[in-house]
Each structure stands twice: as structure tokens, then as C-alpha cells.
Design goal:
CATH topology of chain B: Beta-Lactamase
Number of domains of chain A: 2
Shape of chain A: elongated
Largest interface: A-B, 37 and 35 residues
Structural class of chain A: alpha+beta
CATH topology of the largest domain in chain A: Beta-Lactamase
Shape of chain B: globular
CATH architecture of the largest domain in chain A: 2-Layer Sandwich
Structural class of chain B: alpha+beta
CATH architecture of chain B: 2-Layer Sandwich
Radius of gyration of chain B: 15 Å
Strand order of the largest sheet of chain B: 2-1-5-4-3
Distance between the termini of chain B: 33 Å
Order of helices and strands of chain A: EEHEEEHEHEEHEEEH
Radius of gyration of chain A: 22 Å
Number of helices of chain A: 5
Low-confidence stretches of chain A: 5-26, 132-138, 140-184
Oligomer: heterodimer
CATH class of the largest domain in chain A: Alpha Beta
Number of helices of chain B: 3
Strand content of chain B: 25-35%
Mean pLDDT of chain B: 84
Number of domains of chain B: 1
Low-confidence stretches of chain B: 132-146
Order of helices and strands of chain B: HEEHEEEHEE
Chain lengths: ~280, ~150
Amino acid sequence: MSAHAKGTGSIDDEDVTAPGVQPGRAGALGFRARLAGIGLWDLVQMECLARSRVVVLVTGEGGIGYLYFDNGQVVHAVTAEQIGEPAALEILGWTNGSFQPCDRPWPEVATIATSHEALILQVAKRRDESSNLVAFPARSAPADESLEEIEMFEIEEEGVPKMRTPNERELPSAPPAARVESSGGDFSVMLRLGAHGEILSNSGGSEELAETAAYVRRLTELAGELLGIDGFSAFECTFKESRCFVFVESNGDTVLLRPRSETNVQALRERLGLL
Amino acid sequence: MAESVRTSLATLKDVAGIMGSFVCLPDGRLVSREIPAVFDDGVLEEAGSRFVRFREAFAVGDDDLEVGVIRFRDHRIYMKVVGTGMLLILAEGDVNMPALRMAANLVGRRIAPAVALAEAEPPPARGAPASAPPVRSRPAEAPPGMRRFRGRAV
């Protein structure tokens, strides 16, 4: 998704809108920017955070649509065939395109009462439900039970050779239903540790990273205990050049994921309660 | 200096759901705090020293931590590295994260010089409060990064 920030000057791209729609022009003062590789959800959140009153033309794989922002929320949306919340959900489901402010008449009443976070959550859920089930990091299990171990995350298995450690258990191959057809994955490292820190499966990670994951999980639990807060479930770390997620599963396993820089992690954040 | 940092920390509470915050140094020392008195200085130092080690653990693998978000059942802890120190924000689980991030960024910038100054200063004598007087005194034998907690080795 490329974005044109609000600002001076005219919009370069042709405003191909539905009949009767005025071509967009942004005349307000401010910076003008061209950004590439930004997720639409991030742009929506930026507009909401800025509490802008602005109409944005979104051009995506599904066509064109308009999002109306006011006072930190998406209050109205229009696509070629839909209006209101269904239109917003349709637009937020697009993954590639452009995003630029434009001039449009405002509706007399808001057609969307749902918060932008809830809209994004709905789209994330839809994506998850429609995505392929992909396994990783599958916990050691008999082959006939392994389907139950499929992680419902939108994770693609990486073709990196496994690191083996002396205490690592032999893992069964991933079930056919869980295999990923594409060769590239969303995560460069996927690591699963047992409740006692043993490496259950690993793709792309080092033994040192496994030790780090085990240690920081323990530190986090202890710090939470000191502060009187319990129920540690996940954390996200943003580093200078990368990020990683660590979360605890119901069986006590610790999973570490290091997404690639281009991976959209919104759905994962949402699932982990980190959004 | 701690008071000026504390004033900045207080602005974080403009974001609904932020319960409080504190700043600690790499050696675990508390620079300042703006968090309910139920958390005494000793507890914050001990928790802070663990977050410092959290950062150091990743640094071993050349992962230079900038920001961390930790999710607990009903709460979140937001960590932001400020110079060599760390800003730690305790928030409710449903806090507005974009607002929290922005507020933390602003506060981080504002307090960075004071954090750098604080680290240059020699550690205060044991028991000296960083800002508000502690609710209960910290046991003399429990330095930051204590080895025992509630009778257990940690």
C-alpha cells in the first residue's frame, strides 16, 4: 500500500471515482509524503490517532473506496457496491494499493458506529478464517494426533535447515494439511520450547535465541509477580533492525516468532492481545 | 531532576488506562516514578532490574531492544528504552495502544537528558528514596536484582 500524506499541492494520481464524485484535492498545510510498503491498517490507525476529519480515497485490488475519518474513528465508508460498515470491511480487506486524501461530500449522518480497532479485528478474523491452516512450530505428537496440533496462526513454514540440539526430540513431519506450498515464509525464525525450556522444534533460530526466549519469559513472569499482575501471555519486542514475538500456549509451551521485515503482523498482534 | 522526570511521567496518565510509570537505569536504580504508592521503590527496582536483564538477554544476540509490549491477563507493561535507561509503563489491558505509544515517545524524548544525567551520578546511599518516600522500607539485604522473592530463589 502506498500512501500520500495530507498536505499541499495537488494529488498526482488521477482520482478515478464513482460517477458524481468530485476529484480529490488536499489543500491543507502540512507535509507531503510518499510511503511504500505500509499496511492499510497502519494508515487507518494513524489517521484515527491524529483525530483527523478527512476523506481518504483508497485504491486497492478490489477497486476504489472512500474512508471518512472524524474524531479518531472511521465514521463512513463507500465502495462501488457497498456503503457503511460493509464497505469499510471490504476496503480494510485490501492488501495492496494507495491511500490519499481527497475532497468528498460528507454524509448527513455517520453510517459506522464500530470503532476502527473493531473493524480491523473483524477483517483480521476474516483473513484468518479464510487463510490456509499452516503448521508451525508443531509440538511433538503422534502422527494421527498431529492435526490437532496445527497452529491456527497465519504462519508459513520456513525452509531453513533445523538446528538440532542434544536434547531436542525427533519431530514428526508436519501433517500434509499443514504444509505450505510457498517456499518463502512470513517468519525467519520459529521456535517452540517446552515448559522446561527444551527445544521442541526450531526453524531458523539459534540455541542462544532459545535460551534467551526461555530466560526472558521467566524474567517477565517474575517481574509481573512483583508488580502483582499475573497471566503473562505474550510480548512483542521491537529491536533496531527487527522484531520478535514470544507467547505462551495453553500447554505451557513457549513460542518465539521472528517475522520478516515485510510481514504484516497485525493479525498476530490481534490474536496475542498486543494490538 | 527526579521531580522534572516525574512531571513528565505524570503526563502519561492523560491516556486512559495508564496506571503509572517509572524509569530505571541499567544498574536497576530508580530514576523517578509516577505510580501508586502501593508499589514501593524496592518493588519497582526489583521489577526494573528484571526488565533491564530482559534487554540485556536480547542484546547478547545483537538484538538491540527499543520497545517492548508485554501482555498479561488484565494488564500490559510497555517498555521503552531511553538512552541507557528504561521507561516502564503499567497499563490496563484495554489501554489505547496507539495513544500509549505516542505518549511514551514524547515522554521518552523529554526525559532522555535527565536519564543520562542520572546515570552519570554516583548511586545514592542505600535506602535513599528516588522520589516519593517508600511505603515500606526495602530490606537492606535485598539489592536490585535480589536473588530471593517470597522465600523462593529466583
